[in-house]
Amino acid sequence: MAELVDITDGDDPRLADYRDLRDVQLRKNLEAEHGLFIAEGEKVVRRAVEGGFPVRSFLMAPRWLDGLADVLATTRAPCYVVPEALAEEVTGFHVHRGALASLVRRPLPPVAEVLAGARSVLVLEDIVDHTNVGAIFRSGAALGFDAALLAPRCADPLYRRSIKVGMGAVFSLPWTRLPDWRDALTDLSAAGFTTVALTLADDAVPVEEAVAGLDKVALVLGSEGHGLSQRWEETADRRAIIPMAAGIDSLNVAAASAVACYITARR
Fold first, then answer.
1. What is the pLDDT of residue 94?
2. pLDDT tens track for 193-237
3. Complete DSSP assignment for 10-46
4. Statement: residue 53 has pLDDT above 90
5. For the residues 110-119, what does the mean pLDDT come to?
6. Mean per-residue pLDDT for 27-49?
7. Is residue 97 scored above 80 in pLDDT?
8. Closest Cα partner for 101 from 161, 17, 215?
9. What DSSP assignment string belongs to 156-200?
10. Residue 213 CB contacts under 8 Å (≥ 6 apart), including other chains
11. Across all residues in the chain, what is the average pLDDT?
12. Cα(134)–Cα(159) distance, rounded to whole angstroms?
């Protein structure tokens, strides 16, 4: 059972995992150094624990203890109980969902392990916005995709904002990073996947047409600004587009992923 520890001093060193959660660069360095990530909110904390991630500690306002009593009862980790004003002081924002947890990152699995048995895969290249990454994971998990692969420069799916937007989908959708960016799509093709890149290329066809009749599909999404790199656009097996009404050429990558996942899942 978790040990309840009342804390009233914002400088208490035991709260170090939770400091300055809105400072992206600082958090990236701290979380990488200590091998941790932060889950926010009762549902997300619960899903992280149920996903098997070891808990370093919890941080909760008193009114959230009852809602996570069953989780606390089965977890051997300290639960720091603080006034809501102190939680805001430490984290740098109003923790309106009341509960936070610091959890241990697990080593990323090899690509082959993530792809084992998969038929529908998301492949993300240089998507740097944490909100977009979280939303894409949520769409993929909700619409039946089996896995996600991320290029090295993609935003961290275990960053607090990504997890929150994705409602913890990162805990259920197998994922890893691609060690070889340049030949990643060629390698996927060799593994039996048809790589379908969402792009505005001249030879792009409607996504319904691009995925029709395929067995194993890797849906490829590019960055928020310039889209896919020339290398990935050219090495994809097929190029696809979501037809737009006159005057609009594309959707935000998170919205486009939801549409494309829905269509691909029903191919």
1. 78
2. 999 999 999 999 999 999 999 999 999 999 998 899 999 999 999
3. TT-GGGGGGTTTT-HHHHHHHHHHHTEEEEESHHHHH
4. yes
5. 98
6. 93
7. no
8. 17
9. PTTSHHHHHHTTTGGGTS-EEE-S-STTHHHHHHHTTPEEEEE--
10. 267
11. 95
12. 9
Residue 21 has pLDDT above 80, yes or no: yes
Asked if residues 72 and 46 have their Cβ atoms less than 8 Å apart, the reply is: no
**Which residue intervals of the chain bear CATH 3.40.1280.10?**
111-265
Judged on CB neighbours under 10 Å (0-12, 13-18, 19+), 131 is middle
> Chain-centre distance of CA 113, in angstroms?
18
Q: C-alpha 55: how far from its chain's center? A: 19
Q: Per the confidence metrics, is the pTM higher than 0.90?
A: yes
- Provide the residue count of the chain: 267
Helix ranges (DSSP H) in 92-243: 111-115, 130-142, 160-165, 184-190, 207-211, 230-235
Specify the CATH number of the domain 111-265: 3.40.1280.10
Residue 58: which of 47, 43, 68 has the closest Cα?
68
| CB-based contact 133:158 (threshold 8 Å) | no
Question: What are the residue ranges of CATH 3.30.1330.30 in the chain?
Answer: 3-104
pLDDT at 96: 63
Q: What pLDDT shows up at residue 200?
A: 93
Structure token pair of residue 220:
């490829």
Question: Which CATH number is associated with domain 3-104?
Answer: 3.30.1330.30
Beta sheet of 78-81, edge-to-edge order: 3-6, 78-81, 55-60, 99-104, 36-40
Mean pLDDT of the 76-89 span: 94
User: Beta-carbon neighbour count of residue 9 at 10 Å?
Assistant: 11
Residue given tokens 């895969």 in the structure block? 121
